[in-house]
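2.7 Reproducibility. Because tokenized structures are sensitive to small changes in the input, we list the exact sequence used for Ser/Thr protein kinase RdoA (MazF antagonist), including any N-terminal residues retained from the expression construct. No trimming or masking was applied before prediction.
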Amino acid sequence: MVNLIVKKGGDDSSQNRLLFFLRKSLPDKIEEVIHIRSHVYEVKKAEGKMILKGFPSLRSLKIQESFTRSLKKEGFWQTYEFLSFSKEPLYFDNRYYGCLEYIEPGNQPFYYDTKQQCREGLELLTTFHQATTKLVDNYQSYLSAFTLKDKWLARFKQFKENERLLSFFLPRDVIRDLYFWANWSLNGLLQHWESFTQYQNVILHGDTACHNFLRTANNDLFLIDFDLISIGPAVNDYLQYANRILPLFSWSMDTLKSHRQFRPFLKESFFLYALAFPTDIFREWNRMIRERKYHDPHHVRPVMALTMDKYEYRSLFIQQLARTLK
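Resulting structure tokens (single pass, no recycling of outputs):
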């Protein structure tokens, strides 16, 4: 018997067609297929497991395959590798699928809830950057250059265009503060843009959320999911990392000072201005409105919490940044 497990919201017809497709296309006997998230599946075979992941184009799949091989060659072993079963790529429902090595997760998922966990994630990210410094030239023609100011300007513009809907959820003074913080941050960042671009380029991970760090059963820490890789200074990833951990530590500047990766940047005006930009709030509200999920309390509640729960701490943090920059 071959089993299929579909998470809530899955399409049974599509899942069954995928199961049939895998049985026909792969040499191993497929025993079970478990839907993890969009276009990602855990596949149980007669001999072990693997992860099946879909990509929007053959080019993106090939770049991912090549990039993970390059990482291993440069000595960065803390990630998965792609498995190869045939010369022909797996193509199903307008997606190209890659087979990834299965890494056994530990009992405790990685999360930014302790300084030790934050430190481990930063050390791994630094090791990743050191390896990718040597790969920039090889991938220059395959990866886009990351420009923070363009991304943030677009995110801010979209947030302002959503103001009519936002006003049903957020108080007027909160929206006003968010606009002020964003304008102040962007103006300062643009004034000091040359300092921002002086650093050596690396290949950026692009999504330093805790779910892209995997704690293994052996207690090792792995970095996964390279869908958003691009080329730019490592400070882009560190800014994103800071933005992820600060809400969990009540927007404490001491939290950043306790990590060696942040200390040099905390002396730079461009970095301090960038820390004030409410990119996380803009990202989540824009996404929820774009996906039309604002009618569902299950989706609204965490975005409201992100915005309001540590709002006073964030405000005090930005005031501290302003005093430092005087």
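The domain at 3-101 is CATH 3.30.200.20 (Phosphorylase Kinase; domain 1).
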